[in-house]
Amino acid sequence: MDIHAISTALSSIKAATDIAKLIKDSNTSLEKAEIKLQIAELISSLADAQIEVAEVQNILLSKDKEINELRVKLEIKSKIVWEKPYYFLICDDEKDGPYCQHCYDTNSQLVRLQGGGKNEWFCHSCKGRFRDKNYVSPNSRTTRGHW
């Protein structure tokens, strides 16, 4: 049952409820207590059904949202590659990134690393620092003219 079908069902149930209320409140030939009681039960049943359909609609919306989130995660997982010490996304044969290894591995979040100067990167989310294989420590760099 899709969302449109549920909305249609809700509208139909509401219309039936309104009709039953009109019949119940009318003072024509339906004034017998037994008929009014049955109509009151019908109204109650229709109201219960309307509530249940609304709950099903909420569940379906929640499931649709979850399915979409899982699709996005699956698409990312198919495009992400690990190149120590960080992740990259491959889109149309081009690398995008780098992304924080810690944030992706712990929370499945793609957080773009900042910096990159002197082969050192910083994550503003987890505060992690990442250095690739070309990193040279400031202490080990040669200083010219000073012995």
The major pleated sheet works out as: 3 strands, antiparallel
Helix content: 40-55%
Order of helices and strands: HHEEEHEEE
Secondary-structure-based class equals alpha+beta
Main sheet: which strands, in order across? 1-2-3
In total, the number of domains comes to: 2
| Low-pLDDT residue spans | 141-147
* Helical stretch tally: 3
C-alpha geometry:
rod-shaped
Number of strands: 6
Q: What is the radius of gyration?
A: 32 Å
Mean pLDDT across the residues is 80
Give the termini distance in whole angstroms. Answer: 80 Å
Beta-strand content bin: 15-25%
Please, could you describe this protein's structure?
With 147 residues, the chain is of the alpha+beta class. It folds into two domains: 3-76; 84-138, no CATH class. 52% of the residues lie in helices and 16% in strands. It contains three helices and six strands; from the N terminus they run H-H-E-E-E-H-E-E-E. The chain has helices at residues 3-25, 33-79, 101-107; strands at 80-83, 86-91, 94-99, 114-115, 120-122, 129-131. The strands form two sheets. It has a three-stranded antiparallel β-sheet.
